[in-house]
Write a structure and sequence with these properties.
316 residues; mainly alpha; 3-stranded antiparallel β-sheet; 17 helices; globular
Amino acid sequence: MSRGPIYLEGYKPQFSGHETFPLRYGWLKKAHNAIENHNDGPKSKAVFTSDESIADFGVGKNMVASIRHWATACGVIEDGKTSGSLVIAPLGKRLFGEHGLDPYMEHPASLWLFHWNLAGKADKTTWHWSFNNFAATTFGRESLVSALETVCKDRNWKRVSLATIRRDVDCFLRTYVARRPSGKASLEQTLESPLVELGLIKAIGKRDGFRFVRGPKSTLGPGVFLYALIGFWKSYTTANTLSFETIAHEPGSPGRVFLLDENDITERLLHLEELTNGRFRLSETAGLKQVQRSSSLDMDALSYVGDDYPKRSEAA
């Protein structure tokens, strides 16, 4: 089995950028609106760096930088063609733009899309490695820190300090795990990040124990699963077939990133043919289970995501 993208030569690790703040409710929409109001101008990065940004976003300088980081990492905004510019990415337009699917980020499909961008791509090292390469099902905070420290030493990433890894792991866990309740904590403070709602990591024991929750994901729709499958396929191979084992177990695959078991993956793959009008289909010949495609991987994968959201007449 492949060890994943972070083991490739030339890979540049990222253990910072969030300023220790996990993704918070409303931030991605705010980032989208800020760039939209700037008309994607040539100096649109100034939306997050100018002296006015603190007043515009209503938070401190470090938190403004964190908002930009998460909006970029989640695929809502991206660098423009000119230096100093930021533009709204296709996913940001699809969700938050005019007639967007989820302008107020109320649907779990949006959360799964953001999780895919964070853990399915190798840019954010802790996120990608933890979901795709970390072998433990149950773990402690320090065991994850230690494992990542070992990866850094093995890869000779000299500029990554233990303190930096520890801060990144703390932010990672706060992204997916609700804070332990206390008498003074409000519900909003306990559910610090919207991705907690996905239930991918649970706290266990009295303190600092955690568990990856593998199995069926009832809120993960077929459109988002197919979107992830197409994205993974494009990064993995140009072949017209992709084995079940690869889809289920290869680092960066939907099976790994969404923590799905084999039965759930099989069930999802069986419905691909109907969902895609035959463009993708599961076949099994001589005991080899694989997905075949008859369509280009350059297709508009986001077009399938809309099926996971309620129709406007139903949502009204």
